[in-house]
Specification:
The complex is a heterotrimer of chains A (245), B (242) and C (221).
Chain A (H helix, E strand, L loop, with lengths): L20 H33 L5 H15 L3 H15 L2 H9 L4 H27 L3 H9 L4 H16 L1 H14 L11 H12 L2 H30 L10
Helix pairs in contact in A: 1-5, 1-8, 1-9, 2-5, 3-5, 5-7, 5-8, 6-7, 8-10, 9-10
Chain B lengths: L1 E10 L2 E11 L4 E5 L6 H8 L7 E6 L2 E2 L7 H6 L1 E4 L11 H11 L5 H14 L15 H13 L5 E5 L7 H16 L4 E4 L3 H7 L2 E6 L2 E7 H6 L4 H11 L2
Parallel strand pairs in B: 3-8, 3-9, 6-7, 7-8
Antiparallel strand pairs in B: 1-2, 1-4, 4-5, 9-10
Chain C lengths: L9 H38 L3 H16 L2 H16 L5 H27 L2 H9 L4 H31 L11 H11 L3 H33 L1
Helix pairs in contact in C: 1-2, 1-4, 1-6, 1-7, 2-4, 3-4, 4-6, 5-6, 6-8, 7-8
Classes of the chains: A mainly alpha (245), B alpha/beta (242), C mainly alpha (221).
């Protein structure tokens, strides 16, 4: 393999500017985290609501929830990203459309976060639905028999258990959000993948660049995993064995 | 207290209940028995509206269960129910299980609710377990907590849906003892159970169901003396033979 | 709003889009076939008694599963020419990348499938005097594969959607074709909507097939 190694490249200056390549990567890391966390908050909120609604006895609400999930699950994330960035502003009323296209601050960041958030919300909704439906029907009866209204039964009885049960799949979703945020390169968010391509082209030190970026993605996945692990520990119910009833 | 007239229910084509009528007066203890799939669990769940029914009428303390204007949560809060699988809330401590309904539904203060809850826990002999979680108790203990939880709401009557059939044999009696005590205190009770010893001891009447119909509705003496229907005779002989 | 959409540009670009879709489908099929074969091999390694083999397979699977696919595509596109000394096109590079990447995901599915076959089956194979290799290939793997067909297909739907990511190295798949057509006619919006619709229809049809299969598998068991 004929390759000119240069591990010092990170501290060298970029071709047109006074930043170093390390600065680029740090910026990229920051945007990756910003997009991922914003998207995660959107996804968790919406996904919980939609997943819950899909278990209620109202037929049309369930159908609406199912449509939501199918829509976001059956179009590639990259295509969704392009739709949100190029197509959605065109479909808005004229004034709003102009504002979004020209004046909206942090347009790329907001678009990417919303897109990734909605995409992930569909997957979380699926987990939440499965979690609630895995609970024995008697729990719903017990809540209702106690005089709780349906919302109270969800609030005090079903959701606290359902969320504990789905912590493991949520952990992998949380890790996926960081991985999927890489698709935001397509609409020029200055996240890690975008920065790595830019650095690779600018410095022509592809391997060093990708090694650094790959490690940073690892760090994200690792931290996400540990955070969820902590949550799982803290919320563990004494004496409760999953699947036993 | 509970009046049921011509209650019928079906899931699609499948008829679960057909023309069920009976009454439970204040202070009465009714035992409902019958082979599995005879509709007895469904019948008892209709009483507090956990299962909807298509025709007929059920009133509890004068309130019509099936009527659309009925505030079902309010009605259910006054009717205690105990389930086959206990259905304690696994993520709450025993004390929380006993107080959550009092606080959120009856709007009692936390202190008052805890005091009432612990008193009832003591009554079922489990005061020492107050800080534990359901998963840390035996089945019999969990079911006694479930009874205490239902009592904490000061119910006007109690429904039992096969309270002992998920229990290991050696734990059945500790639960039945609590139920017998309740019966002696004059609680109105409707119990789906196969425990004929319990029925003999405290039941006022026994209802026998088969294929969604009430086949027999007799006083305890009549039921155990000379059951009229052949099905009930067969059932009794099977159940009492061991 | 919608009134400004000009859908008349779609019909003339269909032949061009079709070549893009053909590549997407080809990439999906190649990666699926290669991925399942390689994935099964990885799964067998992970379940083997050799600690070295199991460790290496686990490391490979974990590595692939913790990096974004986009980065894997970039890595392969960079490394293949460096290692072979010859530049390969984006299209070929993508085929290799997706096979290697999807193998990690398919291997997890096959591993679960193999573990779903009861131990008694292996014992029965041993009792018949079959070798490990024979027990695996005639008894365990066919059952594991059949049990896992719905899950494998679901993964293939995800794979098909993921093929759109070859966009980053410029391979001409369905999405890229739509983008080019959009530029040629100066109608990118219509093309993006149309391509989203194509993906949606294809994926949802396939997922309906999977649902049917799931019902059948459930009955057979």
């Amino acid at each position: 393999m004929n390759y000119h190694w240069n591990w010092g490249i990170f501290f060298e200056q970029v071709k047109n500017g006074d930043e170093t390549y390390l600065d680029w990567l740090i910026t990229g890391f920051g945007w990756t985290i910003a997009v991922s966390l914003t998207a995660w908050i959107i996804a968790l909120t919406l996904g919980s609501v939609i997943g819950t609604l899909r278990t209620t006895p109202r037929g049309w609400v369930v159908a609406l929830g199912n449509a939501w999930v199918e829509f976001f699950r059956n179009i590639p994330l990259l295509v969704q990203m392009l739709l949100w960035f190029f197509v959605v502003p065109e479909l808005l009323p004229k004034d709003l459309s102009m504002w979004v296209k020209q004046d909206m601050p942090a347009k790329e960041f907001i678009t990417a976060s919303v897109c990734l958030g909605l995409f992930t919300s569909a997957r979380i909704a699926e987990q939440v639905r499965a979690g609630i439906q895995s609970l024995p029907r008697g729990q719903l009866y017990a809540g209702m028999a106690m005089g709780f209204t349906l919302p109270q039964t969800y609030r005090y009885v079903l959701l606290p258990m359902a969320f504990r049960i789905i912590v493991p799949p949520l952990t992998s979703e949380f890790m996926s959000v960081f991985k999927n945020s890489s698709v935001a390169f397509a609409i020029s968010v200055l996240e890690l993948t975008f920065q790595s391509r830019q650095m690779q082209e600018d410095s022509e030190q592809g391997i060093e660049t990708y090694v650094a970026v790959t490690i940073l993605y690892f760090v994200c996945a690792f931290i996400a995993n540990r955070v969820m692990g902590q949550i799982e520990q803290r919320t563990r119910v004494p004496g409760y064995v999953t699947g036993k009833h | 207290m509970i009046e049921m007239s011509n209650v019928s229910k079906h899931y699609g084509q499948f008829q679960v209940l057909t023309d069920c009528s009976t009454t439970v007066s204040k202070g009465e203890v009714i035992v409902v028995c019958g082979p599995s799939g005879s509709g007895k669990s469904t019948l008892i769940k209709c009483v507090n509206g956990l299962e909807p029914f298509q025709s007929g009428k059920i009133t509890v303390d004068g309130v019509s269960v099936g009527a659309p204007e009925t505030d079902l949560p309010k009605l259910r809060a006054r009717v205690g129910m105990v389930f086959q699988n206990f259905e304690l809330f696994p993520h709450m401590s025993i004390t929380e299980n006993l107080t959550i309904g009092q606080i959120k539904v009856l709007k009692r203060s936390a202190e008052e609710a805890t005091e009432i809850g612990l008193k009832l826990l003591d009554r079922v002999g489990l005061k020492a377990q107050a800080g534990k979680f359901p998963g840390q108790l035996s089945g019999g203990q969990q079911q006694r907590v479930a009874i205490a939880r239902a009592l904490s709401m000061n119910p006007i009557c109690m429904l039992f849906d096969e309270p002992t059939s998920a229990l290991d044999p050696e734990m059945v009696n500790e639960v039945l003892d609590v139920m017998v005590e309740l019966a002696h205190e004059g609680m109105t009770m409707m119990c789906v159970t196969h425990e004929m010893g319990f029925a003999r001891k405290v039941a006022d009447r026994v209802i026998f169901m088969d294929q969604g119909r009430i086949v027999e509705d007799a006083t305890k003496a009549d039921f155990f003396g000379t059951p009229r229907s052949e099905r009930a005779q067969q059932f009794l002989s099977k159940i009492l033979s061991h | 709003m919608f009134s400004t959409l000009d859908l008349s540009v779609i019909a003339p670009s269909l032949p061009f889009l079709w070549t893009g879709l053909q590549y997407s489908l080809k990439l999906t099929l190649v990666a699926m076939t290669g991925g399942i074969i390689l994935g099964t091999f990885l799964a067998l390694c992970r379940l083997s008694s050799s600690r070295v083999l199991a460790g290496a397979a686990t490391a490979y699977v974990d590595l692939m599963r913790s990096i974004p696919l986009v980065m894997v595509i970039l890595w392969f596109f960079l490394l293949i020419p460096l290692m072979t000394g010859n530049p390969v096109g984006a299209e070929t590079s993508a085929m290799l990348t997706f096979t290697a990447f999807e193998a990690a995901y398919y291997s997890e599915i096959m591993r679960a499938g193999i573990q779903s076959v009861s131990r008694g089956q292996v014992a029965a194979g041993d009792a018949l005097g079959l070798t490990y290799r024979q027990t695996m290939s005639y008894i365990v793997l066919p059952q594991a594969f059949r049990n896992m067909i719905p899950v494998l297909l679901t993964q293939t739907i995800i794979l098909f959607q993921d093929t759109s990511l070859v966009y980053i190295i410029g391979a001409k798949d369905l999405l890229k074709a739509a983008e080019i057509a959009g530029k040629n006619y100066n109608r990118p919006i219509e093309m993006y909507i149309f391509v989203a619709l194509c993906y949606f229809v294809l994926c949802i049809s396939l997922s309906l097939v999977v649902k049917q299969l799931q019902k059948r598998v459930a009955i057979v068991r």
